[in-house]
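Example 3.2
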Amino acid sequence: MEDKEETKMDCVYLRGPGPDEVEFGQLDIPKPGPGQVLIKVEATPINQSELCCMRGEYDDIMNLGYPFVVGWEGAGTVVASGGGLQAWFLQGKRVSFTRCDEAPELGNYSEIKIPGTYAKYAITNAYQCVPIDDDMPFDQAATFFVNPLSAIGMVEEITNDKATSVVLTAAHSQICQMMIRLFKDANITVVAVVRKDEQVESLKERYGLEHVFNFNNEDFLEKYKEVVQELNCKHILDSVSGEIVGQMTTKMPKDSKLIVYGYLSKKNISGIDPYKLIGNRLVVKGWFVQTWMESKNLLKIILIIRKMKQLAKDHFASDIQAKYELKDIKEAMEVFEKNQSKGRIILKPWGLEN
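Structure, written as tokens:
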């Protein structure tokens, strides 16, 4: 580390479950163990996953050890090694990285307590770091993991089913635009569903999509049904939830699948006709990036990360709408929640001038 006497770091942490427990303060700088590295964090993004965590919505699926430092991904410089060939190799390198994996299986309720990325320093396993080129800004590199990993995982889910088309809700979001690029590469037709007319035009112009719908239009469900039936489209990737998604599901062909990976509307899925659910053999399943990653062995994880690096500049670049210091976390959360379609919010642990 740059300052040998430094023992405390600024960070954002939860004192306990729930949004009232979000705190900006100081905690001990973590020490890397064997196979781990210590990273000086230069940038870290706000994702939907962090919002859910800070709202207490993960309490039923994760056992968080309080005080719990928030943050799933980031970018910075490796300043110390805990030992091991890969960790030693990374010393002094600029890296993109994801939160240290310490629970071998989601749901086993082993306590998650290693500090996350909303801090001046973070530790993680060396294999969870990707060296980045000198010309890649830390702000872009910080968004390299959660959304790209999720996009790759869900595209894998669709391609494994040998699908030729797919429906995306909240299709103007950063993660969906990543998926659109990947689906175009795989020659899979995208039916995009958004909530504003300007988003319809944006997706058509940027990606040449033919089927883009605003679900707030009165004739949406009628036109949507015509398209999905014509394409024999049997998959919905949904991050919105609510009644409209249930209604969309019942318009799908037989043997269709609703895959839920988000909860933007904060409304439960409703509007599904039980007779159509039964008669059309519809399936509803949840999808979580951590569960998907835990299904992969170390070699597959390395190959996935290699693929991410190859696609980083063309497929996974993120729009950035604003930057905040860690101490302004609550304002940053509020802005991101209201304007998620405008791009990512980046937190700067060492100040905006860095």
